[in-house]
Amino acid sequence: MHPALSIVFFTTASGAGYGLLVLIAWAALMGHHAPQTHFGITGLVIGLGLVGAGLLSSLGHLGHPERAWRALTQWRSSWLSREGVMAILTFVPAFAFAGFWILGGRIAPLAAWLTILGAVLTTICTAMIYASLKPIRAWRNPWTVPIYLVLALYSGALLAALLLNVHGLHGPFVAFLVAATGIVGAVLKLGYWAFLDGGQAVSTPETATGLGSIGKVTMLDPPNTEENYLLKEMGYRVARKHAARLRSIALLLGFVVPVALSVLALYVAPVAATLFALMAAVSGAIGILAERWLFFAEAKHTVTLYYGASRA
Description:
Blueprint: H1 5-29, H2 38-59, H3 68-71, H4 79-104, H5 109-131, H6 144-166, H7 172-197, H8 205-209, H9 229-234, H10 240-264, H11 270-297
């Protein structure tokens, strides 16, 4: 599939924003940070800002952004519509939680729990937009939803670790969370890539035509002689050597480097710890952007079988 930058940014930024909101709400419920702390205020602003920026970016992928509101009416059958509805609904308790924290100086438990629930459900809806598409094997599998959830929490933990260090609130728990979610995320991605590379293809020219019992099926003539919309949007190809290089970059910058820096930050001076946390957050963002770009670029739609693809 063609990896539109607006969608790559949307899924990455909104995931990080929801992950950060979950961690702040959870920390508030557990009483780890008192209301009106600079950490809470800054974190809420950044979290809500990332979610809002991601949603606005997603509109750039629409041919008619002014009609986006119509998609909200299809929530009974569309995961895209459900995601939009959940995103809007999540803003209500999130703003209430932020208002009680910043203006009232106290925690609103119900608003905090609803913020966590809304963030998790919205992230699941985002993942299900892709996991529900049967013609795309790279998305329609058991790996997609867990990866979206874990990477959202992981990227949110990287931001939370940075904010804690900036505000002088050092603690091993967030570093442990970064390490744990980073390791789980890396394992999930390695498993996903192994699934993508191995196994029998769900669709081939033989299964699509029903002529597999005769032998190998080849196209005599292409459906058209020039590139069309289907080839541009659904027939995007990334060279195997480039995909392998980008996978290494995603794994190294997205998981190995941030986890190592986050752990090292526990054993150095506060100034160095803040620098390490910043480097970890930047490295993680670059790695996850590469991972998300690959998520779209390596996906093959079954329609490409009619344009010469050997499997999908």
